[in-house]
Every structure is written in structure tokens, then in C-alpha cells.
Amino acid sequence: MPRVILHVDGEIIEQEVKENSNLVVLAGIKQFPKLKYGCGMGKCLKCACEIISGEEQLSSPNWKEERMLGESAHNGIRLTCQLTIREDIEITQENIAEKIKKEKDSIKLTK
Ligand code: FES
User: Fold this and answer.
1) Which domains are seen in the chain, by residue range?
2) 65 Cα: distance to centroid of ligand 1 (angstroms)
3) Residue 21: per-residue pLDDT
4) Distance set, CA 23 to CA 4, 30, 111 (Å)
């Protein structure tokens, strides 16, 4: 089973999940604690995370991630509600709003 490591609010949550799990679905049924999320449908950004390791196992960002995250979706920031976990992965939700803002600002500056 894939092992998930989540950094959030100064804590590190480490847990095995079934292959092809969605962490927001698991959080919704109280089987994955501490994960921040909201709509579960790619519309609110509350579940955004930065991938620390294991990005290679993920499918490419979908249109919802691209709409919400812009270029950040291709720079290691993803919407957890849109991810299917197939192998070990380490993610962080620490300071994620600031990271997204910084990424968007740097894109504006280079245009
Ligand atoms: S939970 Fe709302 S975008 Fe993922």
C-alpha cells in the first residue's frame, strides 16, 4: 500500500492508504486526518499542496488544476482532491497560499 506523508500545521502525518485512493475522499470519511480541503471538486483551492516527492507517479494536472493553479500546477503544486495516489508520496500544505501567490507573482513579473 502507498505510504503518504503530509506536512501540515507543524505536524507530520504518515499513513498508508489503499492504492488509487483520493486523500480528500479519505479525509471526508475521517480516514486521513488533518488534511485541509473544502469542495472536493477542484473549485476552492483549500486542498492545494506542494509535492515534495513522488510527483512522477501522478497523472498530469487536469483542466481544473490548470484553471485554479495556472502554471503552478506544472511546478509541483497540485489540488489534492484531483490526485489519485498510486505509490508513496510526500506532500505539504505548509504556507501553501503564500507559495501559490509567489508563483503567480513571479509569472506576472516575467511577462
Ligand atoms: S477541495 Fe476544493 S479544490 Fe480541492
Assistant:
1) 3-110 (3.10.20.30)
2) 9
3) 97
4) 9, 10, 35
